[in-house]
Amino acid sequence: MIVAGCDVGSLTAKAVIMEEENIISQAVVLAKTRPSESAGDVMEKALKKAGLSRGDIRFAVGTGYGKDQVSFVQRVESEISCHAKGAWWNRPAVRTVIDIGGQDAKAIQLDDKGKVVRYIYNDKCASGTGRFLEVMAEAMEVDLEKMGDIGKQAKERITISNQCVIFAETEVVSLINEGKDVSAIINALHRAMAGRVVSLARSIGVETDVVMTGGVAKNSGVFDALADCLNLPVNHLDGIDPQINGAVGAALFAREYA
Amino acid sequence: MITAGCDVGSLTSKAVLMKNKRIIGSYITKSRVKPEVSAREAMQGALQQAGISEDQITCCVGTGYGREKIPFVNVAVSEIACHGKGAKWLMPSVRTIIDIGGQDCKAMKIDASGKVIKFITNDKCASGTGRFLEVMARVLGINIEDLGRMSRKAKTPVILASTCTVWAQADVIKYLNSGYALEDIGAGINTAMANRIAILANTIKAEKDISMTGGVAKNEGVVTTLSKTLGQKIKVARKADPQLAGAIGAALFAEEHKTEQGGKQ
């Protein structure tokens, strides 16, 4: 049986196709203006990779902020449920999922059955979301993808005192003008970002195993800073792109409903 | 007796010279990296306007975020206290002062004597501060001074649902790309700003007369919308530039300080 999950986020759309226990195809595309268009695009891409057509999909579930505008899904599920389900399927020992996306951050606590116990999310303030890093990368004219590595070269430990993205950007500009090393600034930004997300996660309690998902999990600087700040080991999901976890969860729901 | 007040803010620095509680010189300048340089520039401007020299100043009080770094002041006094005192001088009937600075906003209540009895301040989040308007004006490609009158010209103001400056900026870009009229977007920005300030004002239970000081008091769109939201007319002092409130308060404190000192001797 072939099923699909489609996670339409604010910045990217993700699709996952599963056959029984296996992910047989996946795709990530940048979001278009219309969520319906992004969903269609990403699904086509995933189908093409697998050499399948729409008719081969027995059941499809949508999630993410644009989920209600996806025409080809039979059901929708909340992002929280999908992220929890995806992470638990990948790593049954997981009790806390920390997901940092382009425009939000969430922390989800699960029980040993994979059920969501409580969760919290921030989509009101750009601080502590992927947008924070994007703005800083632009201000410093560095590649977003390279930030993780650059931050590791820091020789000096400095602190960013502002939480607000707008104020922190000004702070970064003054640090550059003061002649501070870009690597030290990036390192400080990763710690600032981790600190913000950890305080969000701690408000619901953090238990091991901790898993970090979302596009920002690809930044090793933030990933390590998160573990440091929590003073706990933080894990990647096993063998999958951290960005597609929500879509995996949606596909798992599709398998149940089919 | 001539006294001086110097208010070194994050974006602008202000100096005021007073004689018998009247302003004889004032100056507003963009803040430099070093607070002492900004303070010196503002003070020189005010001295020049008044046509006097620095040694004629009996006492000088410093305020604002850079107050501890001004070399020529005799005493440093908190911004809250100075704004309370300055606003009271600008408008004696005032009981609630909403001061929006370049990177912060404050709301305070004062008693009949001008003493601050309650206050709340935000300097953690750019939303609701002058910085919010600055960011938005830049996105619209207009001068911040031109933003205020857009509320009057707007036909159907847009709604900015996000509080966060970063998200609101993204919304504004979307509206621009979708071809909305500049005035409608500008008006939406002013309303979003006013709504944010209203939350602050409601927290301290604003009572009349309510006055606005700081640079944003010059934005008529924000002032009018805020008046509507609070159900109270916001009065903006005409006696002097509302941006000078902190420096005026500082100069008045300088006079009191000297008088007290004189009494003791």
Chain-averaged pLDDT of chain B: 92
Give the overall average pLDDT of chain A. 94
Strand coverage percent of chain B: 15-25%
Please report the total strand number of chain A as a whole number. 10
The fraction of residues assigned to DSSP E strands of chain A is: 15-25%
CATH class of the largest domain in chain A: Alpha Beta
Question: What level of helicity do the residues of chain B show?
Answer: 40-55%
Structural class of chain B: alpha/beta
Topology order of chain A in helix (H) and strand (E) letters? EEEHEEHEEEHHHHEHEH
Q: What name is given to the CATH topology of the largest domain in chain B?
A: Nucleotidyltransferase, domain 5
Shape of chain A: globular
CATH topology of the largest domain in chain A: Nucleotidyltransferase, domain 5
Total domain modules of chain A = 2
Describe this structure in words.
The complex is a heterodimer of chains A (258) and B (265). Chain A has eight helices and ten strands. With 258 residues, chain A is of the alpha/beta class. Chain A folds into two domains: 1-91 and 240-258, ATPase, nucleotide binding domain (Nucleotidyltransferase, domain 5); 94-236, Nucleotidyltransferase, domain 5. In chain A, strands 3-2-1-4-5 form a five-stranded mixed sheet. A five-stranded mixed sheet of chain A has the order 8-7-6-9-10, sandwiched between helices. In chain A, a hairpin with a 3-residue loop joins strand 1 (2-8) and strand 2 (12-19). In chain A, helix 2 crosses helix 8. The longest helix of chain A has 21 residues, at 182-202. Chain A is globular, with a radius of gyration of 19 Å. The termini of chain A are close together. Chain B is of the alpha/beta class and 265 residues long. Chain B folds into two domains: 1-91 and 241-265, 2-Layer Sandwich (Nucleotidyltransferase, domain 5); 94-236, Nucleotidyltransferase, domain 5 (2-Layer Sandwich). The longest helix of chain B has 22 residues, at 182-203. Classes of the chains: A alpha/beta (258), B alpha/beta (265). Chains A and B meet through helix 5 of A and helix 5 of B.
